[in-house]
C-alpha cells in the first residue's frame, strides 16, 4: 500500500491550468482587481464555477512568480481566527494558517462560503483589505505588511443568505464584487462534452432538463432551494459513460434520478414533479 | 478473564461478506460512483439496510486491494473537525481521524446520520468531493491528494429531517444520491429466515404486522415517527427462537410488545392501537 | 478516622443479591435479551425498581463469570463521549470510561435517565448495539470487538419526556423495551415489610395513601409530575421505625408530610390537598 | 500585616455551637434522617435559618466523631461535577472536591441553593442517595463506598423557583424534605436580643415592621420577591447599636431604609409604600 | 521611552484622598457597616460618584492600617470565579484574585456594575457576607477566615436593571444598601469649579443644562436611558478650559454637543431636541 | 521569494502622514481630548474616514515622541479580555495585548466597530477612562498607572446599531463623542483626484451617483443598509484608471456595477433600481 501524495501548504500552487470557460468580462475585472491590490468577491449559485474561476486565475496570475500558494478555506460558523492565522503546537512550533501564509509568501487565499463565517472571521479580513494592507497576528506579536502579490477572494451564494447572515456594509464595501450565474446552454453543453467526452445529443438533453428545473425554481410547483448545478450535469454524464463502459444500455431515467433529481430534493411531491419532466428522455 | 479482540484503525477492513439482499440497481450504481470517484449518499428509514449495503460494498470493492479500511462514523452535533481529521496527543504523536486515514490509505469512510452533523463537518466533506480531491489538514500543514480507492459515503433518513437540518445545496449537489426503502414482504421474510432460522409461517406473521404498522404511519390513528424496521423484526424472531430454546411455548403477544411495539412508541394511546393489531396472532 | 472502602472500576461487581420482587416476565425477557446479545431498555416512573432490577440481573448473569463489572451511569446533558469512553490523563495514562471497560472486560453498563443524555452520547451506543458489535475509540485508535458477556441497558421515565428529548427511531429501534410500573399493593406491602421490618398494618396504610396519590395524579385537583415512589414508602417506614427506636410515639402525619408529601410537591395548594388525604391515618 | 487563618478542607469542622432557636420538630427529624442514612432537603425563604440549622446539626452530630468535616457549597449554574468531585492539578496532585471529601472522610456536605444547580450536578447526588451509597469518581477510577457518617443536605427556596428550575421527581423523591418559615414574633425578638444585645422594645418594633412587610408580600400594593429576612433584622439592630456606640441618637427611619427597605426592593413606588409603614417608628 | 509605573495588587492602596463631596449621611453609614463587618451596596445612576465614595472610604478606613489594598472589579457576564479567586499559572505559581487578596490581607474589594455579574459570581459573595465570614478556595483547598478589616462593596445602577438581571433576595438581603443620586445644583457647581477651575457662571450654565436634560428623561419628548452624569459635566468644563488655553474663544454649543449630548444619545431626533435646549447658552 | 516585512507591536507607529481632508473642527477637538487625557469616540457610516482620522491624529500627536505605537483592533463578539490585555504562551513568555502595550508604552489604541464588542471588553475600557487611569492585569498581577501619552479611541457606526448592541450609559458617558458623515461633494471629488489621479469630470460623475444613492437610502424604493462609501468611490476610480492603463476604453456601467452597486446590495430588485441610475453615465 502506497501512501498518497502530500504537499506542504507553503509550496502549494495550481500547477495545471483548470479548464475554465469565461462567460463575461470576469477574467479582466479579476485581473484588474489584482493589479489594484483590491480583494474580489464572487457571488452565485452552487456549482456555477466560482472556485474553478479562482483556480484558473491563481494559475494565470501565478505564472511568472516563483511561489504563488493557492489556499481555499471552506467557511462555516466554527472557523475561527486560529484557523486562519495559525497557532503554536505543544512544542512551541508555529503552525501558520492560510491568511498568515498568504501574508508572508503572497498568493491567493479563497474564503469559500464566506457568508457562513462568523463575525470574528469577517472582521479579520478588514485589515488585509484596508489601504494599509497589514495583518496583525497577536499570537506572534507581528504586524505583517502584505506583499504586493497577496490577494484575498471571497465566494458565496447570496441566493440563500438569511437575515442573520447578511454581510455588514463595513465588510461588503471592500470588494470588487462580481455576480456569476449558470452558463448559457451552448457553453454548458461544450463544458460537458469537454469534461466527460459525452456525445452532444445526450448533453443537450441533460442541459435542457437542467434549465427546465432552473426555470421551475421560482414557480409554485416545487420548493427547491437551488437549481441543478453544472457539477451535477457532469456527474450524470459520467454515469452515462459508465453504462457504456460496462457495455450496458444507459438507463437515462435512473441516472437522472440519482444524479439530477435526488441531489436537489428529498421531498416526495417535488420528486414526483421532477420525474414527470423526465418524459423528455 | 480474556481481553476482547482489538484492531488498529488502519488495518480495519470488512473481512467477511455480510448478508445483503439487493432490492434494485443500488449495487451497480454504487459501483459506478466508485469508478467515477464520486461520493454516494444513501437515504432511507432507520434499519432498512443502509449500513449493511455499505459493508457489503466495502467488502466487494476491497476484494482485490491489499488494504481497504472501512470506517463508519455516527454523526451528531458534537462531532467536530478534530474527530474526523485527527489530532496530536500530549506526547506529540499524531492520532489520525477517519477522513485522514481514508485520505492516506484509501478505503471507505461512511458518515452515518449525516443530517445530524454540524455545518463545519459538512463543509469538511467539500474538498474531498471536489474535482481536485484534496484534503487540507491544517494541524499537520498537509494538503493530501486523495488516492483513487478512497470513497466517501453519507447515510441519513430524510424522513425526520427538520428545517434547521436540511443539507445546503452546495453540500447535497455533490453526491450520487440513492433512495432506499423497506424490502418487499417476500424479501423481508427471506431475510428473517436466513438471519434467525425462524419458520416461514411465523416470519410472515411478523412481517405482515410490520407492514400494517408501516401503512398506519401516515394515518390519523397513531403518531409514530417511523415504522417497524427490519432490524426489529430480526429481534422479535430471535426472542421467538429463545422461547423454543428454553423449551417454553412462545408468547407471541409478549414478544411483539417488547420488540415491535414498545421500541416505536411510548405513548399509551398509540400502544393500545398497536396492541389491537396483535389480534392477528 | 478510617478512610472508606474504595474499589477500582474494572473489579467492580454486584457481590450480594439485592432484594428484587418480580412483577411480570421481565426477568425472563431480560435474560433472553442477554443471550441474544441484544440491549435492553427499561421504562417506568422514578423509584419503581428499574435499577434494582438491573442490579439483580447483573448479580444473576454474573454468577458464573470470573469478572462481571456492573457500572451505572446517571445520564444528563453534560455527559460526553469522554465520560463514557475514557481519556488520557496528563501523564499519558489511559483512564477507561464505563463503555470502554465493558467493551474490554464484559459486564453490564447501565445508562440511567438515558432520555436526559445528549445526541452524541446516544449515537455512541449505536455501534455497540449493531450486529457488528464494535466500539471505535478514536482516542486510542482502537476498534474493539465486544465480548459476548457485554450487555448495555438504558433506563428512563417516558412519563416526563419532553419533545426535544424523545429518542430518535434509529436509537429506540435497537432495544428489547420493557415497560415497568408501580408494584401491586400486595407486593409493595411485602417489599416495605421486608426492607424496613415495619408491621403490615402500618405498611398497608402508607401504601394506600401512596395509591390514592398516584390515582389523583391525572385528576384536576393536583398538579404533580409523578406519584409517590416505592422508595419514598421505604423512607417513611424507616422514619416510623426511628420513632419506635427513640421510644417516641410515631407521629404519622408529620412523617407522611416530610417523607411522602413534601418530596413530591412544593406548591402550597397541592400540599393542602394531599394533607387532607392524611385523614386516613 | 498578619495573614488570616487558613484551614484545609479535610480538617474543617464546626467547632463552636452556633446559636439556633428551634421552631418545630426539625431537629429530631434531621437526626433520624442521619441515623437512617437518608439525605435531608431544607426548603424556605432566604435568611430564615436554613444554614444555621445545618451548622447546628453538624456541630451536634459531629460531637463524638474525631473528624466531621462540614462543607457548604453555594450552587449556581456554573458549578460542575469537577467542583464537587475534584480534579488533578497540573502536577498530577489530586485536589478533592466537597463530595469526594465527604465520601472519604464522612461529615456533612450542604448544597445550598440547590435549585440553582445544573442537571449534571443534580444527578451526581443520585448515587450517594441510593441504597447502594456509592460515589463513582471517573477521574480517579474509584467507586467509593460511603462511610456511615456521611450526610448530604440540600437547601433551597421553592418560593422563587421557576419552571425550568423545578427538581425532577427522580431527584426530589430521595430526600426527607423539611419546610421552614420565618420564626414567630416572640422567637424572632429573642433571636435579635441574643444576637445583637438590643433592647426588647426596639426589637419588637423592627419585627413588627418585618411582619407587616411579609404580610404585604401577597397583596397587590407592592411587588417584592420575598419578605424581610431575620438576617436583615439582625443587621438593622446592629446599626442601631452602632449609633449608640458612636454616642449619636439612632435615626430609626434612616437605618430601616438602608437595612430593611432598600435591600428588598429598588423600585421607587415600592420603596414609597414601605416608607409609609415606617410611621410606626 | 520610560515604562509606566506598575504596582503589585497586594501593595495597592489609595494613598491620596480623592475629592469627595458628601450629599447625606452616606459616609457615616458606610463607616458603621465596616465596623459591623457588613458589606455595603451602593446604588445610583452612572457617574454620580459611587466609586469616588468607595475610594474616599478606602482612603479613610485604611489610614491607620499598614496595608489596606483597594481593588475595584468591573463586573460583566464573563467574569468568573477564577477572576475573583485566582488560579495557578502554568508553572504552578498561585495568581491570587481580588477576593483572595482581600481574604488574606484585608482591604476593600469593590464589585462595580455588580448587576452585570453572573449567578456564579454573585453566590461567591455569599460566604464572605455570612456570619461565618469564610472564603472557600477549592483550587488551593483552603477555607480562609476573613480578617476583620476586609470589606466587600457592590455598586450598580438599578435604573436600567432588566428582568433577568435582578438580584435574588438571597443575595440582596445581605447588604446595607445606600441609594445615591445626582448632587444638588449647588454641590455640583462646587465640584466642577474645584475639579476643573472653571468660573462659576459657566459651571452654572452647564449644570442647568444637565438638570434640564435629567428632568426631560421621564418625559415623552426624548428616549434616553440616563441623564447627564457629573463626569460629563467635568469633561465639558475641561474642554472649555482647553479653548482658553489654546487662546481660542470657547464654542459652548460645539463642546456641549460632543461632551454632553452625543455621549447620551445617537438618535437624530433626540439630538435635535437636546440641541434646542442649547439656546440657553 | 522574499518574506514580507514584519514589525513588532511595540515598535509600531504611523511613520507617514496619511492624506486626510478635515470636514469640521474634529482635529481640534481630538487634540484637546488628548491633552485632557480623555478618550474619544468617533461615530459615522462605514468608509467615511474614521480610521483615516485616527491614523492622521496618531501621526500628528506622535511627532515629538520617541515611540508612539498605533494599534487598531477590529472588535467583534469573540474578542476577549485576553486579546486586549495579553497572555502567557506555553513557555511562560508574556504576550502583551494592545491595551497592555498602550498602558506600558503609551500611544493610541483604536477599538474599531466598538459596538460589536462584548460587555466584558466594554467594561475593560472603564478603568482606563476613569480619573484614576489604571489598568489592572490579573494575569500578571499588575495595576498599571497609564502614561500621559496613552489615548483610547473607539469607532462605530450607530446607523445599524441594534437594540442588544447599544452602549450602556456607564460606557458611553466617558467619551468626547464626535459624529462624522460623508464629505461634501467638493471635498470628496478632491479626495478621489488626489488618491487615484482621476480626471475631475469623471470623479464628479461617480460622486454624484454616490450622493444619489445616499439620498435614496431613506426612500421606499430600495432597502440598502448603508450608502456608497468614499472607499468604494476610490475603488471605482482605480478600475477606471486600470482600463486606461490596459489601453481599453473604460466601461463606466460595468465598473460602477462591480464597484458601486454590487458591494452595497445583492437583491435583484435593488440592483435594478440602482442600475437605472447609471443612465447618468
What's this, in brief?
The structure is a homohexamer of 281-residue chains. Helix content of chain A is 41%, strand content 15%.
What does the secondary structure layout of this molecule look like, with pairings?
The structure is a homohexamer of 281-residue chains.
Chain A lengths: L5 E3 L17 H10 L4 E4 L6 H12 L8 E5 L6 H5 E3 L5 E3 L1 H8 L1 E6 L6 H10 L5 E4 L4 E4 L4 E7 L12 H4 L3 E4 L5 H12 L3 H17 L13 H16 L6 H10 L6 H10 L4
Keywords:
homohexamer, 281 residues, alpha/beta, two-stranded antiparallel sheet
Describe it for me?
Chain A is α/β, with parallel strands linked by helices and 281 residues long. The first copy, chain A, is built from eleven helices and ten strands. Chain A has helices at residues 26-35, 50-61, 81-85, 98-105, 119-128, 169-172, 185-196, 200-216, 230-245, 252-261, 268-277, and strands at 6-8, 40-43, 70-74, 86-88, 94-96, 107-112, 134-137, 142-145, 150-156, 176-179. In chain A, the strands form three sheets. In chain A, strands 3-6-9-2-10 form a five-stranded parallel sheet, with helices on both faces. In chain A, β7 and β8 (142-145) form a beta hairpin. The longest helix of chain A has 17 residues, at 200-216. The radius of gyration of chain A is 21 Å and the shape is elongated. The termini of chain A are far apart. The model of chain A has no long low-confidence stretch (mean pLDDT 88). Chains in contact: A-B, A-F, B-C, C-D, D-E, E-F. At the C-D interface, β1, β3, α9 and α10 of C face α1, α4, α5, β8 and α6 of D. β1 (6-8) of chain D pairs antiparallel with β8 (142-145) of chain E.
Amino acid at each position: 500500500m502506497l501512501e498518497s501524495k502530500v504537499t506542504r501548504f507553503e509550496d502549494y500552487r495550481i500547477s495545471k491550468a483548470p479548464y475554465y470557460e469565461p462567460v463575461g468580462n470576469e477574467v479582466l475585472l479579476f485581473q484588474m482587481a489584482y493589479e489594484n491590490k483590491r480583494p474580489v468577491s464572487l457571488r452565485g449559485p452552487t456549482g456555477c464555477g466560482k472556485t474553478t474561476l479562482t483556480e484558473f486565475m491563481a494559475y494565470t496570475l501565478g505564472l511568472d512568480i516563483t511561489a504563488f500558494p493557492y489556499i481555499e478555506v471552506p467557511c462555516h460558523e466554527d472557523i475561527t481566527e486560529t484557523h486562519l492565522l495559525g497557532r503554536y503546537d505543544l512544542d512551541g512550533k508555529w503552525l501558520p494558517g492560510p491568511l498568515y501564509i498568504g501574508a508572508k509568501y503572497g498568493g491567493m487565499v479563497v474564503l469559500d462560503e464566506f457568508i457562513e463565517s462568523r463575525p470574528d472571521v469577517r472582521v479579520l479580513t478588514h485589515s488585509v483589505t484596508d489601504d494599509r494592507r497589514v495583518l496583525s497576528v497577536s499570537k506572534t506579536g507581528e504586524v505583517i505588511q502584505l506583499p504586493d502579490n497577496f490577494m484575498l477572494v471571497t465566494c458565496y451564494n447570496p441566493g440563500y443568505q438569511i437575515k442573520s447572515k447578511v454581510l455588514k456594509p463595513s465588510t461588503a464595501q471592500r470588494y470588487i464584487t462580481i455576480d456569476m450565474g449558470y452558463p448559457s446552454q451552448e457553453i454548458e453543453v461544450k463544458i460537458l462534452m469537454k469534461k466527460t467526452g459525452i456525445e452532444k445529443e445526450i448533453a443537450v438533453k441533460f442541459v435542457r432538463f437542467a434549465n427546465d428545473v432552473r426555470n421551475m425554481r421560482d414557480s409554485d410547483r416545487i420548493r427547491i432551494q437551488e437549481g441543478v448545478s453544472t457539477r451535477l450535469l457532469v456527474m450524470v454524464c459520467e454515469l452515462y459513460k459508465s453504462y457504456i463502459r460496462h457495455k450496458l444500455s444507459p438507463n437515462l431515467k435512473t441516472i437522472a434520478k440519482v444524479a439530477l433529481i435526488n441531489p436537489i430534493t428529498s421531498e416526495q411531491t417535488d420528486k414526483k414533479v421532477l420525474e414527470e419532466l423526465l418524459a423528455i428522455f
